[in-house]
Amino acid sequence: MRYLGMTFKYIFKNFIFIFFFALIPSFFFAMSTDIHNIGAVADNIVTGEFDLSFVQLFNFFSLFSLKRWPFALAAFVLTLLFMAMLLSMMEKHMRVGSRSFRDLFKRIDYNLGSTFFILLLALIAYEFWALVTAGLCSLVVLIVTNGLARCILGIALACGMMVLLCYLVSLFLLWLPCRQITGYSFMDSLSYSSQISTGKRGNIFLAVLIPYLSCSLLQGIVVTVSAFADMRPVVFLCIEIIYIFVFLYYNVLMYVLFFDANGEERLDLKKKY
C-alpha cells in the first residue's frame, strides 16, 4: 500500500503538469472500446448465464476490438509518443527537482526507442494473455451446463487470470525505467530491475493489482448501468476518465518504484524555500 500512496501523491501534486500527456491517448483508447460488447458480456453475467462466444470474450479482454481496431492502433502510437514524453519529464523532475516543457524533447529520441520495444512486447504478451483467457472461459461455457455454476466458475477463472496478469506485470514493471535511467542494455536492465525489486515484490504486486481490479470493476459497472438508459456520452466520458487514470498511474508508479528500490534521492520531494 506504500507505493500506492506515493504514486497517488505524485499524481495529485503534479496533475496539471501531467494530465495533458494522458488526455489524447486515453481518448483514442475510449474510442477503441467496444461498449456494446462489454455491455452484452456484463448483462450476460448479471443474469447468471455466462453463455458467451469466444469472439465476445476475446473482444472483452483484448485491447484490439475487431470492429474498432483502427482506433486501438492509433491509441498505441499515441501512447508511445506521449508516454516517452511523460517519462522524460518525470525523470528530470524526480532527479533534478524541476519540470519544464522546454526540455521535453531533449531525451525523447532516447526514450522513444526503449519505450517502443518494451511497449510492443507488453502489447504482444497482453494479447496472448487475452487469447488464453478467452479460450479458457470458452471451455467453461462448453463444459459446464448449469448456468449459475458456469457463471461462478467463469468469473473466478477470469479473476484468477487477471491476478496472474498483474503478477507478471509486477515482475517486469521496473524494466523500462532501469533501461532509460541507467542506460544499461535491455538484458542488463532486466537483470538489474529484478535485483533491486528483491524484498519489495509483494508491495509492487499490490500496487499493480488493486488499481487494475478496481478500474476493471468500475468500467463494468458503468457499462452495465448504461444498459438501462441511453447514456452513451456519459459512458464514453467515464471510460476515458478511467483510461486517463490508468495511463498516469502506471507510468508514475514505474518511476516511483525505481527511485525507491534503487535508493535514489528524489529531489522533487524537497521543499523549496
UniProtKB/TrEMBL annotation:
This is DUF975 family protein. It comes from the Bacteria. The keyword Cell membrane does not apply. The chain crosses the membrane at residues 12-31, 69-89, 110-132, 152-176, 204-228, 234-258. Keywords: Membrane, Transmembrane, Transmembrane helix. It comes from Candidatus Borkfalkia ceftriaxoniphila.
